[in-house]
Amino acid sequence: MPTLLDRHRAVLPEWLTLYYGRPIELTHGVGRYVWDAEGNRYLDFFGGILTTMTAHALPEVAGAVAEQAGRLLHGSTLYLNRPMVELAERIAALSGIPDARVFFTTSGTEANDTALLLATAHRRSNQVLAMRNGYHGRSFSAVGITGNSGWAPTSLSPLRTLYVHGGVRTRGPFADLDDAGFVAACVADLRDLLAQTRGGVAALIAEPIQGVGGFTSGPDGLFAAFREVLDEHGILWISDEVQTGWGRTGDHFWGWQAHGASGPPDLLTFAKGLGNGMSIGGVVARAEVMNCLDANSISTFGGSPVTMRAGLANLGYLLEHDLPGNARRVGGLLIERLRAATAGLSVVREVRGRGLMIGVELVAPGTDEPSPEAAALALEAAREGGVLIGRGGAPGAGVLRIAPPLSLTVAEAEQGAEAVGRALAAVESRLRDG
Fold first, then answer.
1. What is the pTM of this model?
2. Alpha-carbon separation of residue 354 from 146, 151, 358 (angstroms)
3. What local confidence, expressed as pLDDT, does residue 121 receive?
């Protein structure tokens, strides 16, 4: 009889990635834990790619979904939608963008597509600045601005994309500079790049912390310095907060706030954690930018009453329980514990991150060479030790991505750090022994 994996391979694309040599089927979860079909329990340190933001099976969210589903599942944006208006009001107020308007989508990819549509229409230009090593989704236009070849299956694009430096602090041509020098060099690079363009550039789109790229970032204030240059040319700033939003970084509610000296972005995109697993994405923009479209548009599924109720319940829980503050406190502890647990391991080049968004960069033992092999082994070893983590980084890199639900407890942080430390020690031993 065919296994679930056999059936998966028979009907789904070959390029649809599955983790682990023996892929697991998750059946249910509670809090920060999930179980597979064989009854194994795991501490979830990846949250469905940073999407289970508060907790698995959170009663407040499950109850809101069930209650709304029993009344009305769908209506589309052709009708007034009270939950959509209420959630838009909350997000507009939290965004930091003046005179904000909100448009809901079903994913982060679609949110970034919409932001690119708005920016290029408003500026009447298809030229876009993006960050090297960045990632913004899997659609045709999002792939066209992706600065990571491991996630760009085609070079064709409706956009002309120009890539600037600044997303990776500890590698690349400016790595040896101090923070001030790094920012100055990146700004000089931006000015030089703009001098090579003909006509107006529409926007810079950037993740405050690069997610798929391996939880890398430039120094605080980098995008504020970029913003001064962008404003000289009328270029819009799109902050991709799909992974950094809702307080995951601990220090700030939005990632852009670490770069806020020159003001908020013109557009902000979000998704993932807001729905805690329900399909919500969206764009916040200044009214002048959001209202620039002169053709009809609707969304069939964006702003669904069920997903909006889930978002309201999840956001309410996040704020009422100060989960951004918990991300700051417990995330700081987790980073310390991970550094302590991996001290002395030459397979670990760096433990970096902010809040509950932590990257562990791996190298071949005794070298500075990135090791995807080490990352693959670590993923398996961590699962065997009862912890689910993610992978990322530039092509050929090996970075572990750790991003638990924001309700993570101190005891769970310590448990997870010990398990990851044991996994990495086993990986180093295996690589050294050949």
1. 0.96
2. 23, 24, 6
3. 97
